Amino acid sequence: MAEREELTWELFGTASRELATQVAEDGFEPDLILSIARGGLFVAGALGYALDVKNLHVMNVEFYTGVDERLDLPVMLPPVPNVVDLAGATVLVADDVADTGATLKLVRDFCADQVAEVRCAVVYQKPASVVECEYVWRRTDKWINFPWSTLPPVVSKEGQVLDA
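C-alpha cells predicted for Phosphoribosyltransferase (164 residues):
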C-alpha cells in the first residue's frame, strides 16, 4: 500500500487555525464561506469560527466513489445554491483537498461571474490540481486519511454493501 498522509482531529484543529491565519494575514475578508460537502463542511465550519464569518453555504458535489476511484466529472447534487444569494459577495470556497481540482473548479466557476471575488482554501493541495488555491495548509501527492472519512460508516443503507 502506498504511503499515506494522516490527518488526526487534533492536527485538523491546528491546520484549520493556520489556514484561517493565512486568510486573515492576507487581508481577505469573506462575506460568506461556501463549503464543498462533505469534507469541506468541517473546514468551512472551522474557518467560519476562526474568521468570525457566520454566513456559511453548502454545495454538494459528488466526485470520489472510493480510494482513487472517481466519476469522470464532478456532479453538483441538489439543492444547488441560488446564485442570487451569492450576488456581489466576497466568497471563500472551502474544501478538505484539491486533488485533481475538478470539484473546486466547478464550484469556483459556478459562482465566479456572480460574486465580487472568489478565493479557495483547502487543507491539502496535490500537485495535479487544476486549481491553484490561494490558501493551502499543506501540499502532498499522497492519499490522505481524513479523520472524518477513514473509518467506515456505523450504519449501512439498505442493500448497500460497505467495505470494512
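The beta strands are 4-6, 32-37, 56-66, 69-77, 90-98, 117-125, 135-139, 143-145.
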